[in-house]
Write a structure and sequence with these properties.
Length: about 325
């Protein structure tokens, strides 16, 4: 039996070093090489991204709008595969990534299979702290992004860094909304659910996903995520939950409490410090690393600060188009 043709789509911008590792992992997939095509949607990179992609056998298409969603749209129009796999340049795919996903499509109602995106073992201490925090249910706001679950289950969304789709399902909902800065995968998946399809979290379909390596990049990531989440929430309230809103309003709420009751502010601050201490201890137990455990409070604070600032920015000054942002 001939295996289905798989189109792997990767939107990139100035990620030559990471992309090299990603493409090399794809070349090591336990899957017939002539049944895979790799399409790189390049967002006007100024580094060696394009040359790297071409040298490693990928097809490169130009994404003048630079952001993820138009890149995926452009590549999808050109894809020939029966199966469409989305990943990112900062991911390394497991050798069984594709072959493990195919068995889930025996159910015609399944549109997408995707599992954990794990922190690479060679990640730096800051990245490991980020990975630990992302894997905690209290900080996931109901998302499976970066969670390490053990069972197959139906979910509301699959993150675009590790999502394998049936093309004939995507044909019914593409193109992705290009006005969204982030969370375009969330909106795409909601449209699939509305069509009656299933999305499956599948533990054996996994990638290793590099985390943001420093506070500045993590802050930017969370800031942008919050903008995108509020954007999709305005379109459809089902994609915005109470946690998204509460964390989004945390900064103005904290300032209001400080102004009207310094005692209450101190009590809330003490509760927050206790919370981060608990997770710092858990990180030490989980990772065995004092350095990682000491970075966990920093990571939690950056995540909350970045999310709240991005949320308030979009609430007060809505983003008009995401091109190049």
């Amino acid at each position: 039996m001939i295996e289905p043709l798989v189109s792997i789509i990767i939107p990139v911008r100035n990620e030559a070093g990471l992309l090299k590792n990603c493409l090399e992992s794809i070349s090591n997939l336990d899957y017939p090489k002539d049944r895979i095509e790799v399409i790189i949607a390049d967002g006007m990179s100024t580094d060696d991204t394009v040359n790297t992609a071409k040298q490693l056998g990928a097809r490169v298409v130009l994404n003048e709008k630079k952001t993820v969603s138009p890149g995926r749209n452009i590549a999808f129009k050109l894809a020939k595969g029966e199966i469409i796999a989305f990943t990112d340049a900062d991911c390394i795919v497991d050798k069984d990534w594709i072959i493990n996903s195919l068995k889930y499509f025996k159910d015609d109602e399944v549109a997408c299979a995707g599992g954990p995106n794990l922190t690479p073992p060679d990640e730096g201490n800051f990245g490991k702290a980020v990975g630990f925090v992302f894997n905690q249910g209290i900080f996931s706001a109901g998302s499976i992004h970066a969670r390490e679950l053990k069972e197959v289950k139906e979910v509301r969304s699959i993150p675009g860094c590790n999502a394998v789709y049936r093309k004939n399902a995507l044909d019914k909902v593409m193109p992705i909304d290009e006005t969204l800065l982030t969370c375009d995968d969330t909106e795409l998946n909601q449209r699939l659910l509305d069509k009656g399809f299933k999305l499956l979290y599948t533990p054996d379909v996994f990638v290793w996903h590099h985390r943001r390596p420093n506070p500045k990049k993590l802050f930017k990531q969370m800031y942008r995520y919050a903008i995108g989440r509020l954007q999709v929430g305005k379109k459809d309230r089902r994609m915005l939950n109470l946690v998204h809103i509460m964390v989004g309003l945390a900064l103005p709420a904290a300032l209001a409490v400080l102004i009207f009751s310094s005692m209450l502010f101190m009590l809330l601050l003490a509760g927050y410090l206790l919370l981060v201490l608990i997770f710092s201890i858990r990180a030490l137990q989980k990772t065995g690393s004092v350095q990682v455990s000491l970075l966990v409070p920093v990571v939690i604070s950056i995540i909350l600060l970045g999310w709240s600032m991005g949320f308030m920015r979009e609430l007060i000054f809505p983003l008009r188009g995401g091109d190049g942002k």
